[in-house]
Amino acid sequence: MRLTYSILLPFIFFLFTLSAYAQPAANIRGRLLTAEKQPIAGATITVSGKNWRAATDEQGMFQFSNITYGNYTLSFQHQGYEKASVQITVQHPQENIGDLLMQPTHIALLDVTITTQSRPQSSVEVPISVSTVSGDLLNKLNIRQMDEMAEFVPGLQVQLQSPNNPGYVIRGITSDHGDARSQPRISVFQDGISISRSRASAVELFDIERVEVAKGPQGTLFGRGAEIGAIHIIQNKPQRTFGAAVNAGYGAYNNRFVNGYINTPISEQLANRLAINYEARDGFIANRAGGRLNGKETFAIRNSTRLWGNEKTVVDLILNYQYDNYPGTSFKSKLFAPAGGDINPNSFADLEQGEGLHIKRHVGGATLLVDHAWNDAWKLSSLSGFRAFHADESFDADGTAAQLLWLSEIAKGQQFSQEFRLNYDAGRRLSGFVGASYFYENSSQAVPMRIDQRALYPAYIAPLLGSQLGAQIGALGQNLGLPAEQISGLNQQIQQLFTTAPIMTNGQVQLTENLPNLQPLALGLVNQLLGGTLPAGVTWDQLVQSGMLPAGVLPTELITLVSLLNGSPIAGMHEESSTNYGRNQAIELFGDGSFDLTEQLKVTVGLRGSYEAQRGGYMAAAANPPSIFGMIANNGSPNLLNPVSDGTIYAQRDYFSYVGRLALNYLFDKNNVFASISRGRRPGVINILPAATNYLNPEIVWSYELGLKGLLNQGRLSYELSTYYYDWSNFQTLSIQQVAGSIAPQLLADDGGKAHSFGIEAGLRYFILPAMQLFGNYAYIDGKFNQTDGDGHAQHYAGNRFRLTPMHSYALGLDANIPTSTASSVYIRPSYAYRSGVFFEDDNRADLYQKGYGLANFTAGYRFGHRRVQYEIGAYGKNIFDTQYIIDAGNSGDTIGFPTYVGGTRSVIGAQLNVRF
């Protein structure tokens, strides 16, 4: 911590020194409003001939400090409004120029105001790659899910297998693990509050102001978890005027939705905004065992209250709650087709438990935001957040009608965060912020398992036992000097005993009811070893109990195995469970500032120091009754898959760490060229299990980026171009690992060693005509594991591509509004998104791969107004050509050789009505 203080304190002192230098002669203050007297936030104000710049806050207020007396020209600019200027004479200590009205332009300027750097700024000015999706665009394209939104952000992929299993991919790096002992490498925020825990991060996008996606290491801006980027969802806040809207629709697969808001001013200082969203849809996949799969039902509600304490203080209280009640996910096997069906993941399935498969999730939170302007240059912000979630998912992990692995996942957690941030911006050469934060999180993931051992035996255990016994007999034969032909013959007999009928035949389950009987084979072997001296008709039990078997003839383990495998019935249902725990605390100090070297050239420096206390836990009780196969194949354990622990066991580790960035950018004619170097970090992982605890080192990435973005053709064209290179150490991946105390390997966090990524991104938006705009983006990503690690040794995944990472992806769209009268218009908004093939695991298996595909969508309709009410009657379509694809492959069933596949969204076309007051 001393190192962090030593770096931050000079920076804080420098800010205070500049604010105190050259005491002001006067302050200028004013407010920008629309023609309807509504505040304009994020407008840019400059002073002609001076390197002074200010931005309006959410009340439309702006101010300049330290102004000497004299004559000045102030220029105003904001997207969608005509440029304006005003001449003023400063001759008093406090100059209030009052309210200024800005007139809308016929073609909206494409510059967007964002708060990525914790203050309102033009998106062009920010020296990092930030893509913004406005709430207006979300509404126009009928988007309420994060995976659909991601199509319009270059370099971003969101895999939404279900709300309980989202996967976020920024520039090839995935964050999707639900284990409570792992932490995310991509941060997801709502209004400055982290919601990054995987099982609680997928939220519906309704009544949204905008979504900002900051790419590259952004630890100084979004915390230690933003190793490779952050998704920041900014929700609409209450305004001082009444407003309301409702949007409803109905489409294929019984898709029905309704959402809307009502904004109510309570007094001059207080306003409230209530927003709701409901959407449901039948499942795309029929389940032969009952019900439908891959459906949706979600309800979300948000209440926001804003208090304007005075001209200097704004307080927001935001309450969010979302309830998901989905049918189960179709994890379908390609090994065995359902009766009368096929192995296509997009056709009907036959998953046991039928309608008992489900996803039920509760997510709620409270956010308190306080902004207080101490004076014209300094503003103090407090961000307080509490969040809790509880998710219960029941799923068929093997993807067949046999009950090999019927699992549940019960994940729950709570988190609290508090941040204080001091912002400095006097409209001069220096701006920035310093702050401190505290984060606490406590979560768990329980995985109950129900296994029919009569099904698991032929599918997985029989070959395992045959291999295990064959190895023991082979070793015994070699020790006794038996001829190779005799050993081979014994092995053939063993394999015949453990050869079973396939678990599925023509879609019907084939259970094995009895254990194989090894005793005749063992008696014959012993008789050979003893020279044929065994009494006729002697049984195995008599042989073992009578002492006729000389010591050392057979290993004790083999004697026990033969005694257990005596042809007796196999017990059916077996139940066991395990729970992993994670508790994380972090105290962080941070600072980030920009300094104008010249009027056009700026340098930005940021640093965040963190102290983290991590604790991982694990618990698995002994199954009662125990599994006979655990006793045989799992070293006497009563469990099959979960190593038994002595109560709950814990391990912990503390870290001191830092992340930071250095950026240089040059502004010219509403264009910005920038270069940056930054360091990102993902916290370490504590893989605690009864046999051993594996501490994964924190993942470190160094980022090098060059970009160009701006506005051309009088603001009709906005563009962004960037190229980057990432260099990783201790790259954290997921791998299937053999674990002591389990008959099957487990999917656990692993150290993949060195890795690198090179990429190019481009995005544009262009007004072809005043009422017609074209938008699109493209991303190229070449992300791979290095051939060797830091010590020059060959790596396990050498040369493999990152999972869930398309090499090429692009999206195109058109927004056309054709006026039919002064109060009505017709609109059409088609879009198309494509991504090339992806592997679903880092081992790049050919059977876990989705080739490239594209999805076409549209919205279209008629808009008209009547007596201050706006109406829209339209149609929407998603995946209109019904392209079939998969969104995930492998999953839990892969650990027992039953990889499963999840089909993607099918074609949904419907109609909708929107009314806005």
From TrEMBL:
Q: Mind telling me which InterPro entries this protein's record contains?
A: Beta-barrel_TonB_sf, Carb-bd-like_fold, Plug_dom, TonB-dep_rcpt-like
Question: TonB-dependent receptor plug domain location, by residue?
Answer: 125-227
Q: Name its cellular compartments.
A: Cell outer membrane
What Pfam families does the record tag this protein with?
A: CarbopepD_reg_2 (PF13715), Plug (PF07715)
Keyword Signal among UniProt keywords? yes
Give the signal peptide, or none: 1-22
Q: Which family does it belong to?
A: Belongs to the TonB-dependent receptor family.
Task: Kindly provide the name given to this protein in its UniProt entry.
Answer: TonB-dependent receptor
Q: What is the lineage of its organism?
A: Bacteria, Pseudomonadati, Bacteroidota, Sphingobacteriia, Sphingobacteriales
